[in-house]
Amino acid sequence: MKELAHISTNPSAKPDLQRLLHAVALGDQEAFAAVYDTVAGSVLGVARAVLRDQAQSEEVAQDVLMEVWRTAPRYRPERGSALNWILTLAHRRAVDRVWSVEAAARDTKAALLDISPPPPVVAEADALSEESDLPESLPLPEQAVRIRGRAAAAARSAVVRRIRVFIIFSC
Asked: In Å, how far are 35, 75, 85, 112 from 22, measured between CA atoms?
């Protein structure tokens, strides 16, 4: 048979987090246990709202509660409530995790782009970009057809660069 939980509407039933944080700052492990029991659900909820991943949210919540244990002396009651301080730590840590995951994804993508050989068309365009290797048969814009010599080579080189940029960004 399930036990019924009584939810009190009496605000005095909640532990005084400010007093508990002061005790945690002095190294009181029982006070930390009380802080943990009081705020763990809220910390996990904030992390879950930002991260949307249960496993990462649990890791962030654990990190935040350990940070509360280590940095309790930094809490300043004149700057806000103890709960807001703890939840701000949770939100910041969760956002940092999102940024770190996105940065890792960008780094992985960049590394894959650096490792993978260019598509054959890009390699050919790179080979054509040398002025001396530009073929006379390369299609040019109408205006450039009338240009001869070095100007024609520059026009063909510009066309090759445009083709190369198009190919790179369309891959």
From this structure: 11, 8, 13, 50
**The pTM is what?**
0.57
Q: What DSSP state is assigned to residue 102?
A: H
Taking only the tens place, the pLDDT of each residue in 53-105 is 999 999 999 999 999 999 999 999 999 999 999 999 999 999 999 999 888 88
Distance CA 114, CA 112 (A): 5
Q: What span, in angstroms and rounded, lies between the C-alpha atoms of 34 and 16?
A: 10
pLDDT digits (tens, 9 = 90+) for 132-151: 444 555 555 554 445 455 55
Question: What is the distance between the alpha carbons of residues 74 and 109, in angstroms, rounded to a whole number?
Answer: 39
Residue type, 164: R
DSSP states of 21-54: HHHHHTT-HHHHHHHHHHHHHHHHHHHHHHH--H
Distance (Å) of CA 93 to CA 68, 105, 115, 159: 12, 18, 33, 49
